[in-house]
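[recover] target loaded
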């Protein structure tokens, strides 16, 4: 269990992020076509998992836009934006913002991803959605970088995450 804060108030996740140099847990998430996808759907590519509570918040929107800009210049990296939002809302957000270089994925069918990655918020007003985190995987789905953002209202460490992709 990890402790983070929401507006300075302590809240907790169900566990810890995967450790560096470990094999990333597989997942089943839902894409914009309502299809199930997993890690093998992106085999052979580096992956950045931008894990957010909801794209319908300013900080989540900002991080998605910033990672989209990086993805424009780095087509060999897959930028996955993972949230509890429905795929329809994710698609609308990305369309409205002109974000075509990130892949929004939804936990709409189950929350196993959040539990397996240790980011499920267990208490407080956001219980049931994910904490803000970034996980970077190499081409073999080994974890090469993680960050659980300590204050859920703060942006992630973009430089650290993007440097791990170099």
């Amino acid at each position: 269990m990890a402790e983070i804060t929401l507006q300075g108030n302590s809240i907790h996740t169900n566990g810890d992020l995967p450790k560096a140099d470990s094999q990333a847990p597989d997942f089943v998430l839902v894409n914009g076509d309502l299809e199930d996808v997993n890690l093998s759907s992106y085999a052979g590519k580096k992956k950045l998992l931008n894990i957010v509570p909801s794209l319908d918040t300013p900080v989540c929107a900002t991080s998605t836009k910033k990672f989209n800009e990086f993805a424009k210049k780095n087509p060999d990296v897959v930028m996955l934006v993972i949230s509890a939002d429905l795929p329809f809302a994710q698609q609308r957000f990305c369309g409205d913002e002109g974000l075509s270089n990130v892949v929004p994925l939804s936990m709409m069918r189950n929350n196993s991803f959040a539990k397996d990655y240790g980011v499920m918020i267990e208490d407080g007003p956001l219980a049931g959605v994910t904490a803000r985190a970034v996980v970077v995987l190499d081409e073999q789905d080994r974890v090469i970088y993680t960050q659980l953002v300590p204050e859920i209202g703060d942006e992630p460490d973009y430089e650290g995450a993007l440097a791990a992709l170099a």
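[recover] notes: The chain is about 25% helix and 25% strand.
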